[in-house]
């Protein structure tokens, strides 16, 4: 059982927006502004999309955005594209350790 | 461009020690205030943070693995390593090495190796 809770699946049509949630506790997501989001295509290494809740590394499109409210962080993918179909994982700092969510499979219909 | 490459045995017997090396190219492992980590992913499952090594030499481990894990750096070889002792079938996974973006506390892994599958079986 993962430390952070994500919905197992999400879907949307091309051009639409989809939001994926990541729920933790006050000891991780809620206690620190250190939530990251990763995209993973089959057979590939994860790719960092968002760090420190809202920041994007260079090269990540601004269609990907992050937010947080209380113990729940969210990743929003706007203007869905076919290549966005992948698994998405959240992670958080939690008192000298890192914790991941179980992952969400995003399907582009 | 920074590149990371995992290497090590793909098959380990139960109760033995899993040993992996991450070779860093395109940059010095000791330059800058960079932090390094290991993450694993069992087949068909999610990601699990194993532990991290900071630029100052501190190590942080997943409490669930702490009694069995050692992460160390070999600066002259531009490598860092992972040792996991007393392995069982539950340790079968793709193991990734990665470099943090920024401080350790951010737990943001920006550069990843391609991953290496380690199977625990007799």
How would you describe what is shown here?
The complex is a heterodimer of chains A (about 110) and B (about 120). With about 110 residues, chain A is an all-beta fold. In chain A, about 0% of the residues lie in helices and about 45% in strands. Chain A contains no helices and nine strands. In chain A, the strands form two sheets. In chain A, strands 1, 3, 4, 7, 8 and 9 form a six-stranded mixed beta sheet that branches. Chain A has a three-stranded antiparallel beta sheet with strand order 2-6-5, with no helix packed on it. Chain A is globular and about 40 Å long. In chain A, about 40% of the residues are buried. The model of chain A has no long low-confidence stretch (mean pLDDT about 95). The model of chain B has no long low-confidence stretch (mean pLDDT about 95). Chain B is about 0% helix and about 50% strand. Chain B is mainly β. Chain B has strands at about 5, 10, 20-25, 35-40, 50-55, 60, 70-75, 80-85, 95-100, 110, 115-120. In chain B, strands 2, 4, 5, 6, 9, 10 and 11 form a seven-stranded mixed beta sheet that branches. Chain B has no helices and eleven strands.
How are the SSEs ordered, and which strands pair?
The complex is a heterodimer of chains A (109) and B (122).
Chain A (H helix, E strand, L loop, with lengths): L8 E4 L5 E6 L11 E6 L6 E4 L13 E6 L2 E6 L8 E8 L4 E3 L3 E5 L1
Parallel strand pairs in A: 1-9
Antiparallel strand pairs in A: 2-6, 3-4, 3-7, 5-6, 7-8, 7-9
Chain B lengths: L2 E5 L3 E2 L5 E8 L10 E6 L6 E6 L5 E3 L7 E6 L4 E6 L8 E8 L8 E4 L3 E5 L2
Parallel strand pairs in B: 2-11
Antiparallel strand pairs in B: 1-3, 3-8, 4-5, 4-9, 5-6, 7-8, 9-10, 9-11
């Amino acid at each position: 059982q993962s430390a952070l809770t994500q919905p197992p699946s999400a879907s949307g049509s091309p051009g639409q927006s989809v939001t994926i949630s990541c729920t933790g506790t006050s000891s991780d997501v809620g206690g620190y502004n250190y939530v990251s989001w990763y995209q993973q295509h089959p057979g590939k290494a994860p790719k960092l999309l968002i760090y420190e809740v809202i920041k994007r590394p260079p090269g990540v499109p601004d269609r990907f955005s992050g937010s947080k409210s209380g113990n729940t962080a969210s990743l929003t993918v706007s203007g869905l594209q076919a290549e966005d179909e992948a698994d998405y994982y959240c992670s958080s700092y939690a008192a000298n350790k890192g914790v991941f969510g179980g992952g969400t499979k995003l399907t582009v219909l | 461009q920074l590149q990371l490459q995992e290497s090590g045995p793909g098959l380990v017997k139960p109760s033995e020690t899993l040993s992996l090396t991450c070779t860093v190219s395109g940059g010095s492992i000791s330059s800058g205030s960079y932090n390094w980590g290991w993450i694993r992913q069992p087949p068909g499952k999610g990601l699990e943070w194993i532990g991290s090594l900071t630029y100052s030499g501190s190590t942080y481990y997943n409490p669930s693995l702490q009694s069995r894990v050692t992460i160390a750096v070999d600066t002259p070889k531009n490598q860092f390593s992972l040792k996991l002792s007393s392995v069982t079938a539950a340790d079968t996974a793709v193991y990734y090495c990665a470099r943090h973006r920024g401080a350790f506390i951010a737990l943001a892994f920006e550069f990843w190796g391609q991953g290496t599958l380690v199977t625990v079986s007799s």
